[in-house]
Amino acid sequence: MLEVSRKQALAYRIAEQGLHRSVADPYDLPLLDLGLQDSMRDTALLSLAARMPDPVTPESLVDDQRLALVWSHRGAPHFHRRTDLPELAAALVPIDEPDALARMLWQKKDIQAVDESPVDIIFTTARAIRKVVTKPMTKGAVSTEITKLLPPAYSRWCRPCNATHVHEQLMRIAALHGGARLEAGQSPATLAPLEERGRLSTRPVPAAVSRVLEQYLRFNGPATPGDAAGFVGTAKTCIRETWPDAVTEVKVDGRRTFVPNDRLAALENPPSPAGVRLLPPLDPYTQGRDKAVLVPDKARAKEVWKILGSPGAILVDGEILGTWRMKASGKRLTFALTEFDPLRRADRAAAEDEAARAASARGYPDFSVTWA
User: What is the pTM of this model?
Assistant: First the structure.
């Protein structure tokens, strides 16, 4: 059995995730096979800036008609290639009732209390979304309208909204099946009908689920079945029948993990990571589920992954050696960088260059950098 060190595994991930900046066109970034998570803090755009050799602009993702923003893995918004959406939708069809329930995540108990099949609940909601979303509509408007069409048990009283509406996670995991996408760059969140909706399919496609799990192992491997299930947003027990065949067991510092067969050579001889990258919160690299592998020091890990409002990570020669935050004030963007240990002068300068790239990506010509 192949055994690799933690540093070797991280060097492999950095290369697979495109952090060596070897791909010029965002559409060709292999990481889009899995998707690029976004948030209102432009995380997808900043993740792209960390991977593209040329500067990116605020329009790089929003205006690229080859891409679409949809609620996908775990109900989180991700950019995907439009051509990949049919297979993605197939991969998001629950395999069975326990899988459907597990995908409800924090609202699992609410759905469990409904005297109805969780699979049926998802697709009943999807049909309502398909009926309602025939033009761009805010998320709140969609929620209001589909709540009227759905059984009362699908909804709950929401104190922040001061209204009764459909469960949030339920709407998110049903949206793509309902032929709805998100309008990129819009606030508040706005849904729109997919230009090529296709038919609603409720049939499980185990092979499609297997491919998503295999893609996770490619970009975040070597990893465990539990890691992969966590990314998908389901329970480890729910992926036993869809675990990919073309994977090989690998030990990482004694830990039992897996990697796709066709990536073994890349894992054995990854290029050495070099240089500095500012990775935003929710970056695919720090989204790896095995946080103790990414940052073994528990105190430092707590600084990287906060319960609320995590910062970005400063990646230096393959190790996370600090955190960073940015704040906009008018037309000026301020970066606050915090190093765990004093960095070399050259690494500090490189980090400030990366801050300039991030500021440009967000459309701020005026910015400043402070160190702590």
Answer: 0.95
Structure tokens belonging to residue 195: 């230009």
Bridge partners of 192, per DSSP, are 181
Question: Alpha-carbon torsion 60, 64, 67, 69, what sign?
Answer: positive
- The span from the CA of 334 to the CA of 337, in Å, is 10
What interhelical angle do 206-220 and 6-16 show, nearest 10? 120
Where do the structural domains in the chain lie, given as residue ranges? 2-193, 276-371
pLDDT, tens digit, for every residue of 68-79? 999 999 999 999
Show Cβ contacts of residue 315 under 8 Å, excluding neighbours closer than 6 positions.
14, 19, 273, 276, 277, 278, 279, 285, 321
> How is residue 96 written in tokens?
């069975």
- Tens of pLDDT, residues 263-309: 999 999 999 999 999 999 999 999 999 999 999 999 999 999 998 88
Quick check: helix, strand or coil at residue 163?
strand
